[in-house]
C-alpha cells in the first residue's frame, strides 16, 4: 500500500473557479446522477441530468441536488421549474441511456423540451405534474422541501432538498424483494467522473460492514 509523505497545497481562493471546478470533479468521483423531470409554471417539460446528487436524510427520505447557475449567472431551467411548481421526478441513468441523458444536458433555450430533443419517451402523470421518464426503471416523485442559495453568479450552486413522496419501480423490478434493495445489475447505473468521463458500475466488489464486539 502506497503511503504519501508530502503534499502541495492549492488554495481555491487564489485560482480561477473553473480550474478548481475541474480539479474537484476529478477528486469527488464517481458521482451518482439524478435525471430530473420538471415542468414550468405554464406546463413546459424539462429534462436534465445532475451529478451533484445524493441521499441526505432517511426518516422521512430526502434527497439533495446542487444546481449551479449558468455561466452567464442565470438560473438553470430545472431550478426555475422546481421553485415554481415545487414538484419534480428523479430517474436513474443507466449505461443504456447515458447518451440520451448526456444530450439532455445541452443548453437548449428555455421552453425547449429535452424529452423531445433527446428522444426520451414520456409517461404522463396528469395535468400540472412532471412526467415520468419512460427509459428509467425507477422514479422518485419529490416535493421541494427548501432551496438553500449558496451565493450568486457563475460557479455557485443552489442546494435543493426534496422530500421523496413516492417511489415507483417498473414492472421489470416488481418481483424483487425491494426491502433489501435493488440488485445493482438490474439498474446498471453509470457514475459521473471528471471532464468527459463516466464510470460503469459493472465492476464491483463486496465488503460486509464491520461490527465491534461489546
How are the elements arranged and paired?
Blueprint (H helix, E strand, L loop, with lengths): L16 H11 L6 E6 L5 E6 L2 E6 L2 E8 L8 H9 L1 E6 L5 H6 L10 H4 L4 E2 L8 E2 L4 E12 L7 E13 L14 H4 L2 E3 L5 E3 L14
Antiparallel strand pairs: 1-2, 1-5, 3-4, 4-9, 5-8, 6-7, 8-9, 10-11
Protein name: Flavin reductase like domain-containing protein
Keywords: Flavoprotein, FMN
InterPro entries: Flavin_Rdtase-like_dom, Split_barrel_FMN-bd
How would you describe this protein?
The protein is an alpha+beta fold and 214 residues long. The chain has a single domain, classed as Pnp Oxidase, Chain A, CATH 2.30.110.10. The chain contains five helices and eleven strands; from the N terminus they run H-E-E-E-E-H-E-H-H-E-E-E-E-H-E-E. The protein has helices at residues 17-27, 77-85, 98-103, 114-117, 184-187; strands spanning 34-39, 45-50, 53-58, 61-68, 87-92, 122-123, 132-133, 138-149, 157-169, 190-192, 198-200. The strands form three sheets. A seven-stranded antiparallel β-sheet has the order 2-1-5-8-9-4-3, with helices on one face. A hairpin with a 5-residue loop joins strand 10 (190-192) and strand 11 (198-200). The chain is globular. It starts with 16 loop residues before the first helix and ends in a 14-residue tail after the last strand. The model has no long low-confidence stretch (mean pLDDT 96).
Amino acid at each position: 500500500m502506497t503511503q504519501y509523505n508530502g503534499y502541495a497545497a492549492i488554495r481555491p481562493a487564489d485560482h480561477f473557479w473553473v480550474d478548481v471546478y475541474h480539479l474537484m470533479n476529478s477528486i469527488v468521483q464517481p458521482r451518482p446522477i439524478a435525471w430530473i423531470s420538471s415542468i414550468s409554471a405554464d406546463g413546459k417539460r424539462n429534462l436534465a441530468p445532475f451529478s451533484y446528487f445524493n441521499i441526505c436524510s432517511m426518516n422521512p427520505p430526502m434527497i439533495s441536488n446542487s444546481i449551479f447557475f449558468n455561466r452567464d449567472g442565470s438560473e438553470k431551467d430545472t431550478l426555475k421549474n422546481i421553485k415554481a411548481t415545487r414538484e419534480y421526478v428523479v430517474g436513474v441513468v443507466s449505461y443504456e441511456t447515458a447518451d440520451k441523458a448526456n444530450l439532455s444536458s445541452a443548453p437548449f433555450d428555455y421552453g425547449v423540451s429535452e424529452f423531445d430533443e433527446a428522444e426520451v419517451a414520456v409517461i404522463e402523470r396528469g395535468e400540472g405534474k412532471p412526467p415520468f421518464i419512460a427509459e428509467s426503471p425507477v422514479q422518485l416523485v419529490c416535493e421541494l422541501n427548501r432551496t438553500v442559495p449558496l451565493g450568486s453568479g457563475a460557479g455557485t450552486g443552489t442546494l435543493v432538498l426534496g422530500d421523496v413522496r413516492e417511489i415507483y419501480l417498473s414492472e421489470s423490478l416488481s418481483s424483487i424483494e425491494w426491502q433489501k434493495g435493488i440488485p445493482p445489475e438490474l439498474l446498471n447505473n453509470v457514475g459521473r467522473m471528471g471532464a468527459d468521463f463516466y464510470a460503469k458500475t459493472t465492476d464491483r466488489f463486496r465488503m460486509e460492514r464491520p461490527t465491534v464486539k461489546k
